[in-house]
């Protein structure tokens, strides 16, 4: 298993413990803390040694690389690690971008990015802004209205199903669609905030940065300066969490519109219950209707046939 070992100060280790507070697990004997992230398991010991182990330990280790020296590296750092944000970004003025609806058969993809100033971070936290995956749809819709009242600058884009299906038939992957949506939303927001200072742009990571840049290049675009990527970014960045809530609230509203249009409460996700609902919609409205309300290339379209 790849691993990296750093020797860090007690002060840095305490900063790390706070940074990883949502990922903490049982602390082994002789350790100050242990945390588990999608990239690695991080164990900090009383001796000052910090061990990073897992599928991509260098991504987590690089966050703290300037604080100490590495004395054991068994796997070379990937170039993409330069796109990992510094922990200081989360307490600074920055832009965060996230999407909703990508795994749902019905409904569009929505992407929203928000610019959160440093002094607005505690206000948003007090309001209850956090990872939208841990919030109910009703709470998300309510919070999105509160965010608008606070006049937090944001940009929202909706890729409706007709356009989604047309792009998919054209050869665009969902990853490319999301890349271009994030890029466009970020550029629109940068125009809105004009000369307001920001420390960086954080995108909730859905692909490797090199792939993201490749998608941009195919449409003759380049990555914005100071852009970073991080999985589960909404758990760390209040700006990404804000964008996530705005995107999710928009998705919920669009799903409500589809439900009203079809006269039935449309199910989210892509389960067998969705398959059954697809069969009913085809029976009542014809298969062509799916092009207007669903991501028809999902396997659910074929699975639904056994219920017809």
Automatic annotation (TrEMBL):
It is an enzyme of class 3 (hydrolase). One of its GO terms (biological process) is DNA replication, removal of RNA primer. Its EC number is 3.1.26.4. Transmembrane segments: none annotated. Its cofactor is Mg(2+); Mn(2+). InterPro entries: RNase_HII/HIII, RNase_HII/HIII_dom, RNase_HIII, RNase_HIII_N, RNaseH-like_sf, RNaseH_sf, TBP_dom_sf. It comes from the Bacteria. GO terms for cellular component: cytoplasm; ribonuclease H2 complex. GO terms for molecular function: magnesium ion binding; RNA binding; RNA-DNA hybrid ribonuclease activity. Pfam families: DUF3378, RNase_HII. A divalent metal cation binds at residues 98-99, 204. Belongs to the RNase HII family. RnhC subfamily. NCBIfam families: rnhC. Endonuclease that specifically degrades the RNA of RNA-DNA hybrids. This is Ribonuclease HIII. It comes from Ornithinibacillus halophilus.
